[in-house]
């Protein structure tokens, strides 16, 4: 059996492991679009002194603006349950984006 340098074997093992890794789930929208929608919805949900009716109108406006509905976002959330690391990263990005969208942010 020919002698192969260990770095080559390690590289081959790493490439084989990467090839076996499943592709990320297709959410039907880009991660950045998902982050934007969810951050806008978070801002709507967190607005103080807004009655239920106005909050529902603002939420519906976010859905229309992005061409999504609650059911689609729920399906995406279900898909993300299979990818906990990706989901955690998206939630961190949603928190960060929502902070920049809140009234008075950046002033």
Walkthrough of the structure:
The protein has 107 residues and is mainly alpha-helical. It has helices at residues 6-20, 31-46, 52-66, 70-80, 84-101. The chain is globular.
Say how many strands there are: 0
Structural class by secondary-structure content: mainly alpha
Low-confidence stretches: none
Number of contiguous helices: 5
Main sheet overview: none
How far apart lie the N and C ends?
A: 69 Å
* Order of helical and strand elements: HHHHH
Shape: globular
Strand percentage: under 5%
Summarize the entry for a quick read:
With 107 residues, the protein is an all-alpha fold.
How is this fold's topology laid out?
Blueprint: H1 6-20, H2 31-46, H3 52-66, H4 70-80, H5 84-101
Provide tags for this entry.
107 residues; mainly alpha; 5 helices; 70% helix; globular
